[in-house]
Design a protein that fits this description.
By secondary structure, the protein is mainly beta. Among the domains are: about 90 residues, Sandwich (Immunoglobulin-like), CATH 2.60.40; about 80 residues, Immunoglobulin-like, CATH 2.60.40; about 90 residues, Immunoglobulins (Immunoglobulin-like), CATH 2.60.40.10. The chain contains two helices and 22 strands. The strands form four sheets. Strands 1, 2, 3, 4, 5, 6 and 7 form a seven-stranded antiparallel sheet that branches. The longest helix has 27 residues. It is flat and about 150 Å long. The protein starts with a helix and ends with a helix.
Length: about 375
């Protein structure tokens, strides 16, 4: 009877539980969600409302919507591409599934048109890619950027395609290009160096006209450009030779050497330069040494036509630091080190003088003998009858 009662109690409990908590069928609609959208494998993922906003000098924000919660990624380049894999740059894929997407692009170039595609995916089956869109970053005013993504402009204009685009006996035209609009100036020399007037017109294609040059003379030159933010770019050193025959005497400096390149305060530094007379007749020339743009020495020489001579100057500096050296258009540097601290003097340990054990033993023996004599004498005296 007890087993029958227990079975009836269990059956009754299951019936009551079924009435209170009915079973949900797989065909029943799901409860309302928390805002997310899930797609089935039969519904395609779509992208809409693609827009670039917050465009600054060096960045922008790309936003779009999808009809389901999916990942986010942007592909971008300065040219249009057929597929995402062809773009030169892309952001890291944000795998958190969302339907309202926003991705920031940074490190862009100012005044540049960018092409971009956006892509979203749900797993590996549902993938959607947009068409190619464009936006253009802002152009900084003088002094650098500002505004959204507008960090100060610290990148100088890149100089390339430096060439001689015009040459006579007494003039030369120096041409070059830059990646952004910038001004134009040329430093040129046989010895000493000179600067052309600064052309403050901001252009990409540069041309500087040098005048009053010496016929038949080799000149060294460097192209220089600064952008509106003041970032200066200086080219490598190039050479050209004017047309015609050289004058009676013309001097060229070369082969600057500094030895040693590192020394201690007060030590001598030897600075040498090779001076050559490239003219047709003998002449005199004075080489000038500058250290940190201050003239510290000069030396005159007289050379026959075609002759060369090494000019040597010595100097010493008493303050540690790095020093720039300039000798008539040639430049170098040397470093002066602070003297090392003298080693601490180590005093020898005081060693006590050795003990004179023979002397000490003799003194002890004398004292013992004296005491024995003293006691024996007193003992004899005490034994004598009165």
């Amino acid at each position: 009877m007890k087993l029958v009662r227990l079975a009836l109690a269990i059956i009754l409990s299951l019936v009551l539980l079924g009435l209170i908590c009915p079973v949900v069928s797989a065909d029943d609609p799901p409860d309302e969600d928390n805002g997310s959208v899930d797609l089935s494998a039969t519904t395609p993922l779509t992208i809409s409302d693609v827009v670039a906003s917050g465009i600054g000098y060096y960045g922008a924000t790309i936003s779009w919507n999808t009809n389901g919660d999916a990942s986010s990624r942007v592909f971008y380049d300065t040219e249009s591409r057929a597929s995402p894999g062809d773009y030169a740059n892309s952001t890291t894929e944000e795998i958190a599934p969302i339907s309202e997407h926003s991705v920031s692009l940074t490190g862009l170039s100012s005044s540049t048109t960018y092409h971009y595609m956006v892509r979203s995916a749900i797993g590996t089956e549902l993938i959607a890619t947009s068409v190619d869109y464009t936006f253009r970053t802002l152009t900084p005013a003088v002094g650098g950027g500002g505004g959204g993504f507008g960090a100060p402009d610290t990148t100088p204009p890149r100089i390339y395609d430096v060439s001689i685009c015009g040459l006579t006996e007494t003039t030369a035209d120096i041409c070059w290009k830059t990646k952004e609009k910038s001004n134009s100036q040329v430093e040129y020399w046989t010895s000493p160096s000179l600067l052309s007037p600064l052309d403050e017109t901001y252009v990409i294609d540069h041309r500087v006209h040098l005048i009053d040059l010496t016929p038949g003379t080799t000149y060294h030159y460097k192209a220089m450009s600064s952008d509106k933010a003041g970032n200066l770019e200086v080219s490598a050193v190039y050479t050209f030779t004017t047309l015609g025959k050289p004058p009676a005497a013309a001097f060229v400096t070369s082969e600057l050497s500094i030895s040693p390149s590192e020394c201690y305060c007060g030590e001598m530094v030897t600075i040498c330069v090779l001076l050559t007379n490239t003219g047709n007749l003998a002449g005199s020339y004075e080489a000038t040494l500058k250290i940190d743009d201050v003239v510290v020495a000069s030396k005159g020489v007289t050379l026959a036509a075609g002759a060369s001579e090494q000019v040597t100057v010595t100097t010493a500096e008493d303050v540690a630091g790095s020093y720039s050296v300039a000798v008539d258009g040639l430049s170098g540097s040397f470093v002066v080190l602070a003297p090392a601290a003298p080693p601490e003097e180590v005093l020898p340990e005081e060693v006590p003088p050795p003990s004179n054990w023979p002397l000490i033993g003799g003194i002890i023996a004398v004292v013992i003998v004296g005491l024995l004599i003293f006691f024996l004498t007193r003992r004899k005296a005490a034994q004598k009858p009165d």
